[in-house]
Amino acid sequence: MPFYDRKKETRLFNDFFNAEDFKLFILYGRRRVGKTFLLKHCIQNRKGIFFSGRQISSELLLDFFSQEVSAIMNITGIHFKHWEEAFDFVFSNSDRINYLILDEFQYMVEAAPEIPSVLQTLIDHKETNLKFVLCGSSISFMHGLLSYNNPLYGRKNNYLKLQPVKFPALREFLSVDFHSLLEFYSVFGGIPLYLEMIDPGKTLFENIQSLFLTVASPLKEEPLFLLSQELREPRVYLSILEAISFGYNRSGEIASKIGYTDSRKIQPYLDTLKTLDLIKKEVPITEKNPQRSRKGIYKIKDQLFAFWFRFIYPNLHFIDNEQLPKVMGDLEKNINQFSSFVFEEVSHDFLLKAFQLDKIGHYWNKDIEIDIMAQKDDKWVIGECKWRNKKIGYNEYSQLVQKGLQLPFPIEKHILISKSGFDKRLYDIESVILVEFSKEKDFVIVKE
Questions:
Q1: 195 in Cβ contact with 183 (< 8 Å)
Q2: Which of 134, 301, 344, 448 has the lowest CB atom count within 10 Å?
Q3: Cβ atoms 255, 273 nearer than 8 A
Q4: Which residues make beta-bridge pairs with 357?
């Protein structure tokens, strides 16, 4: 697989591996996001030990680790008796190797819980120039590794939570027009492995059918697998994610939908899903204390999860029974609206950078909803996004102005974003910024 994007991350790791003294780097992120691929790219032309944990016994892991060290060091007959001896040997040979990378570190600790304490002692007392990387896919475990109670707390020099690639980087993966790119992004998000599965010669629906809608499709049960790696009993979590995907966004609505009378009882589940980076809580951008706001709504943060829980999970029985017309009917009817929400998020990212805004988000109260609300210095702007095959008309602008008049502060500018152009009268309005999401050119500011 070619190496895409990740320029900043590559520079970070190159500086890390080029350091003269001992360094500890903790790298984590959800499965499939490209952690192992990034590390292997950055250690090209360097000598060291790259070892991946597996769900096997400590004794077997130690045997495999001994074999790996023996091969890299070109020393026959190495057979460590315990992990302290193994790591001490590697730390002592930093003049011969540059790095030690322990991938899927959570599996190693699961098999041998003493490993963090062993490493703590060596890091604190052993003279070495080793570049040491701990990498893991279990978000909850890796968060624990960074917590105060963990033996390795305070020993790291760097840590990074590797995120999915952003929309602008997708052109490195797919040679399609920008409208198609947005539609693919709406379904597959920014996970490199999923993007590699897409056949750009096929339509969005053809790709969905081959990757999700057959018994052997590789992504048919992908979220189920990923959740099973993190959660012992995923039943309630599945219900919560499905509820959110269908628009039940407030904690009370979610609780009621899944059969709870007290919304406080689902709060631990929501907190866990936030920790796993699968959902986010969003509040109106004007809230002064977002953490305590009672106006929060929950959204699925991972794009493939959002698509899967909206269109695949509720239809698994149809897929298993090969009743695809029912599934495709749901997709054809609702995928455009689903993509429109993603278009809003991508538009926010563009505006934030293009206009150097201080912050950007949504606004809502009991009477109005605004797609875009942003602040720069002490000035506010509001806007609307339209993902449709029709120009934004003068009426949409008038409605936006009326919404602005209901806000408790003046609005400096009005932003309109469209995939299909604008009514020509809008070009003559001084306070309007027009941004077209062009098929050929991406986002283009056509009037500022």
A1: no
A2: 448
A3: no
A4: none
**Sites in the chain below the pLDDT cut of 70:** 1-4
Q: What Cα–Cα distance (Å) separates residue 432 from each residue in 159, 212, 372?
A: 42, 42, 13
Q: What single-letter DSSP state applies at residue 59? A: H
Token pair, residue 5, equals 């994007």
Measured distance CA(249)–CA(231) in Å, rounded: 22
Q: Which residues contact 33 (CB under 8 A, 6 or more apart)?
A: 162, 163, 164, 191, 192
DSSP 424-439: GGGGG-TTEEEEEEET
DSSP secondary structure code for residue 199 in this structure = -
Quote the tokens at residue 92. 């002592």
CA atoms in the 13 A half-sphere facing the CB of 177: 8
Q: CB-based contacts of 328: which residues, under 8 Å, 6+ apart?
A: 205, 209, 213
Tokens of 168: 């602008």
In the block, which residue shows the tokens 């790591």? 87
pLDDT per residue as tens digits for the range 39-51? 999 999 999 999 9
What does the block give as tokens for 332?
Answer: 């054809």
Q: Give the CA diameter of the chain.
A: 81
Task: State both tokens at 7.
Answer: 């320029």
The tokens for 205 are 């629906």
CB 254 within 8 A of CB 244: yes
Q: Is residue 163 within 8 Å of 303, Cβ to Cβ?
A: no
**Cα–Cα distance between 244 and 257 in angstroms, integer?**
10
Burial status of residue 253 (CB atoms within 10 A of its CB: 0-12, 13-18, 19 or more): middle
Separation of alpha carbons 23 and 14, rounded Å: 12
Cβ pair 198, 174 in contact under 8 A: yes
SS3 for 404? helix
Q: Which domains does the chain have, with CATH numbers?
A: 7-161 (3.40.50.300), 168-341 (1.10.10.10), 355-447 (3.40.1350.10)
**Cβ atoms within 10 A of the Cβ of 46, count?**
13
CB atoms within 10 A of CB 184: 22
Q: Other C-beta atoms within 10 Å of 154: how many?
A: 10
pLDDT tens-digit profile of 414-433? 999 999 999 999 999 999 99
Predicted confidence at residue 3, as pLDDT, reads 65
pLDDT score, position 142: 83
381 vs 363: CA distance, rounded Å? 11
CB burial of 111-148 (b: ≥16 within 10 Å; e: otherwise) equals bbeebbebbbebbeeeebebbbbbbbbbbebbebbeee
Structure tokens at 232: 């012992």
